[in-house]
User: What shape does this take?
Amino acid sequence: MKISVIGCGYLGAVHAAAMAKLGHDVVGIDVDSGKIARLSEGRPVFFEPGLAEVLISAIESGRLRFSTDIADAAGAQVHFIAVGTPQKRDSHAADLRYVDAAVQSLVPYLAEGDLVVGKSTVPVGTAARLAEMITASGSGASLAWNPEFLREGFAVKDTVSPDRLVYGVPAGDEGEHATALLNEVYASAIAAETPLVVTDYATAELVKVAANAFLATKISFINAMAEIAEVSGADVTQLADAIGFDNRIGRRFLNAGVGFGGGCLPKDIRAFTARAEELGRGESVAFLKEIDAINLRRRQRVVDLTVSSLGRPVHTAKVAVLGLSFKPHSDDVRDSPALDVAVQLRGLGAEVVATDPQAIENSRLRHPQLTYSTDLDETLRGADAVVLVTEWPEFRELDPVRVATLVRTPTIVDGRNTLDASAWRAAGWTYLGLGRP
Ligand code: UDX
Assistant: This one.
């Protein structure tokens, strides 16, 4: 199929590449000429395992190209909208200006029977509004909403073989046409019997925010248990194991630590709350404010634990911060708990040296005042405390005996509860986890 993808950020670049990998003829469009130039050379603008390889082979096959000209979307049957919906500067609501602009700029190039497919995460009600815009244009095109559930770090795999497909489509013939086109786009996933939910716009929009709200709730739930464990002497990791054996609960997403971040979970729960308030049902998701608050408290806890573990005034101490990205296998520092912890410790006067296998460049752009090092040993050397805040394999695999010879004081704050506490203690370390004795 001929496909256009409008917006080539984390979502769009991966989607465009994955669609070409599936055999479609794809043009990726973005207003950022620098981004388009890099993508055209097969060089992703962010770190995503496996993406460069898929981009290069798709470009070489002739099935994938990139452009800054929206007119190049003309001739495609399916047009994916994959632009960002960040949090507004002055409120918790989602900023829809990029989605609106993308659809508006696309409308003149739509032909009879074309399908515009929204993938961006939007407040419920957006699709109905955009559908009216498309209908009013008289192009004969229609709209579907097809939320994306990809996880950074596994984005290509999640796009090529999703764990479910959701189509929000209009009623009647238009809806059948949209479903048929999307089934053709996702023919390989359909053939693999991927669960498919065909529904209305509102449900499709809500599926995405509900899923992210649930995941955020699960993480903050276990982090709340960590807070209780901290005042009662219990061990939250054992608690998570024990409740996780109940299939109704499940162990995944029950890792207590410094909390969630990234470009989705934090902003999506805030935008959901804002939208529910607009709809007069703020109380229904008021608990999400608590989820957000618990999450932010965990960052503070890591900072407090670190400061109180120092045997000296914080402004005379060196703290080694291991991790900057919001999770491993990503260079994304949007709303990253790790970067936040580093910034807060620096703000308290500590000499902070931070390292990360991928996220230093992005961190430096936002916080040039921090000291960064690409050398793990140099980061650790002379430290009065080590704070692990992103569980990259190279940090998890550190040898406590060797690292003890580098630091000034062997104190480690394990912000992800990922290290073997007994091995670190046996090597002479003061080991401090979250919600663990
Ligand atoms: C998430 C959703 O998983 C995905 O389906 C959606 O489309 C976009 O948002 P992503 O932001 O890539 O994906 O990250 P995810 O792997 O979900 O992790 C989110 C955050 O939660 C990370 O900061 C991670 O460190 C944290 N987390 C996750 C925990 O603190 N504990 C856990 O047990 C799991």
About this structure: The domain at 204-437 is CATH 3.40.50.720 (Rossmann fold).
